[in-house]
Amino acid sequence: MSDQNNHQNSDQNNHQNNHQGSHQNSRQHNHPHRRCGREGKKATVVIPNYNGLSFMEPCFKALELQICRDFEVLVVDNGSTDGSVEWLKDQGVASIFLDSNTGFSGAVNRGIRAASTPYVILLNNDTEPDCHYVGEMIKAIERSPRIFSVSSKMIQMYHKELMDDAGDMYSLLGWAFQRGVGRSSAGYNKACRVFSACAGAAIYRRKIFDEIGYFDEMHFAYLEDTDVGYRARIAGYDNIYCPSAVVYHVGSGTSGSKYNSFKVKLAARNNVYLNYKNMPALQLAVNLLPIMAGIAVKYMFFRKIGFAKDYVEGLKEGIATAGTCRKVPYDPRHLRNYFAIEWELLTGTLIYLYEFTARQIAKL
Q1: Over the stretch 262-302, which tens digit does the pLDDT of each residue have?
Q2: Which residues pair with 177 in a beta bridge?
Q3: What is the enclosing helix (H) or strand (E) of 177?
Q4: How many Cα neighbours within 13 Å face the side chain of 362?
Q5: The domain spanning residue 154 has which CATH number?
Q6: Which portions of the sequence form the region Disordered (predicted)?
Q7: Which of 254, 289, 318 is the last residue of a domain?
Q8: What are the φ/ψ torsions at residue 330 (nearest 5 degrees)?
Q9: What's the count of helices (H) and strands (E) in the chain, helices before strands?
């Protein structure tokens, strides 16, 4: 998702050496060596967890209250040490226990691969979905086989009058952002296309991952959902926003400072990956000036709040290691899609400027 998201309560002291994940060192609880979806369910709710025990019970209670029962739950635990593992075993929750923290990308990839249902719902552990949530998500994605993902209406848990996310957008400046963040939750009631779904609460058509690739584990966390949504757009699939699928999210409401050294550095690095991987050389050349302008503005912002060094280090690491990324090969058959994406980047820039201005005016 955008670099504002905090999918995993990431702890930099545990993560920096685990970017690729650890697929072999895991244990699956309840049904080893069998895929989920045994009873013909339509969706698997995959919940990545890292030391999120305090959130688990309210999240599961909300899932138990779902009117639509056409789903099952799978938790992927990223080596938690806070008692999450014991709680999941005591509750008999179908789980995969990883021996180390593979990040958001590594965890959800394990869950997606373990599922055999047509759809996979990714859900942060610090969320509480409305009782109609699962049903509305399934209904939305079934409207067309060309829909890859559906983003939900994410509302701030402790400020329910405010939006958290109404789908993610991308801009010519190279900025990903949460549409609607900090604005009135009474709005954003119209379904529409978005650049990508926020993976903190989204449904995906599972088989399309086999075509476009899974979440990039080089990202570890931050912008990984924008990246996979970008790849889907290149291939001609749609990402949409469903306002009737409501979920309440703790993240932006109580996470304290939006910025820390680890997050700033990782998001800057991943931003380089995002553009390098998904833009053909010509598109990169066309967008180079606005991307450089975006970098300059962000540098000035981070210098003002004391994170300029981390931001520059992230950019340097991204440039130095971008060549190791799996770049999307250019296919002339997708030329029309690239033009459509360029238009989306332009409109995304205008949406960002409009919402930013509206938030500043509201503060007056």
Answers
A1: 999 999 999 999 999 999 999 999 999 999 999 999 999 99
A2: 169
A3: strand 176-178
A4: 10
A5: 3.90.550.10
A6: 1-40
A7: 254
A8: -70, 130
A9: 12, 13
